């Protein structure tokens, strides 16, 4: 926070909702700087002027990127494009149905995990996708509520499906049984050590530097934020359970009201990490924490 106070005030917003030409989206949150502090005062918003807008658009099977400069009123275009539907024919990719959407972004695809986002999906499409997964046998130890489904199949493969109504996106992962996990999975930190090795072949200094910044491929500040989020929801669920059992207890009512107030802020900060260039290990940790929190919330709501 002290570092931010020394910087010029700036704001940032983004939306990954897919819309047709001429359409608009609403209820998109705006943040101070590029962090997780949302703008709650419209007078603050009126103090700033737009600078650069990044627009991503579909051109056949490719995602193109353009930039609009508000000062010059001109557009510029990136030559690099991305494949719109990123679906690899791998073992785990074949374990689930292919989503019926125009955009699928894959973030992890290895022997252990297949993680992807299906964009431009309605809640009804999400429910239909869940039904397809159930037909494929994902019914063991199932957990579900609106916008969420997690289950195993008879071979121990797990699916985790979470619908983000704000972005019309399904966040999904498929995981192999623990016995199928390779002995060693390469991490971003290991690659960094190799690249930073000294010319004489010694990577000791690079390894020491990487170990200070990363623990098992996860940044300490990231792990602290994830653990804090999970700890909060463990406490939240404990209070909610006690309050449900004894709704006339005024102390519990006060505690529950306080937790409800903090809940939106904690979730907002948690979701902000998703757009923070997470490496594979961090994304795995992010999904694990989110999965555990979702299941605990489901348990106390039943």
What does this 3D model show about the protein?
It is a single chain. This protein has 302 residues and is of the alpha+beta class. The chain has eight helices and twelve strands. The chain has a six-stranded antiparallel sheet with strand order 7-8-12-11-10-9, sandwiched between helices. Strands 3, 4, 5 and 6 form a four-stranded antiparallel sheet that branches. A two-stranded antiparallel ribbon has the order 1-2. A hairpin with a 2-residue loop joins strand 9 and strand 10. Helix 4 runs antiparallel to helix 5, helix 6 runs antiparallel to helix 7 and helix 6 packs parallel to helix 8. The longest helix is centred in the C-terminal third of the chain and has 26 residues. It is globular.
Task: Break the fold down into its secondary structure elements and pairings.
Layout: H1 2-5, E1 11-13, E2 30-32, H2 42-45, E3 52-59, E4 62-69, E5 74-77, E6 82-83, E7 103-109, E8 113-119, H3 123-135, E9 140-145, E10 148-152, E11 158-164, E12 169-175, H4 188-195, H5 204-213, H6 220-245, H7 250-272, H8 280-301
């Amino acid at each position: 926070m002290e570092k931010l106070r020394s910087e010029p005030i700036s704001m940032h917003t983004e939306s990954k909702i897919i819309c047709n030409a001429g359409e608009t989206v609403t209820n998109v949150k705006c943040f101070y700087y590029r962090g997780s502090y949302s703008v709650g005062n419209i007078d603050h918003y009126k103090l700033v002027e737009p600078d650069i807008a990044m627009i991503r658009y579909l051109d056949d099977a490719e995602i193109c990127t353009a930039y609009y400069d508000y000062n010059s009123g001109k557009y510029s275009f990136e030559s690099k494009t991305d494949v719109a539907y990123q679906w690899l024919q791998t073992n785990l990719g074949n374990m689930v149905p292919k989503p019926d959407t125009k955009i699928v972004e894959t973030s992890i695809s290895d022997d252990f995990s297949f993680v992807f986002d299906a964009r431009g999906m309605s809640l009804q499409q999400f429910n239909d996708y869940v039904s397809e997964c159930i037909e494929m046998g994902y019914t063991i130890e199932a957990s579900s509520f609106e916008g969420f489904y997690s289950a195993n199949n008879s071979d121990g493969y797990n699916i985790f499906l979470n619908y983000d109504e704000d972005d019309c996106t399904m966040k999904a992962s498929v995981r192999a049984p623990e016995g199928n996990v390779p002995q060693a999975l390469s991490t971003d930190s290991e690659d960094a050590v190799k690249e930073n090795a000294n010319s004489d072949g010694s990577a000791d200094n690079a390894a020491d530097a990487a170990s200070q910044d990363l623990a098992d491929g996860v940044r300490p500040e990231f792990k602290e934020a994830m653990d804090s989020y999970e700890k909060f929801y463990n406490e939240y669920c404990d209070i909610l359970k006690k309050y449900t059992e004894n709704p006339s207890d005024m102390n519990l009512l006060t505690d529950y009201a306080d937790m409800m107030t903090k809940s939106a802020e904690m979730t907002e900060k948690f979701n902000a990490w998703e757009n923070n260039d997470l490496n594979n290990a961090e994304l795995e940790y992010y999904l694990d924490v989110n999965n555990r929190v979702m299941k605990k919330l489901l348990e106390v709501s039943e």
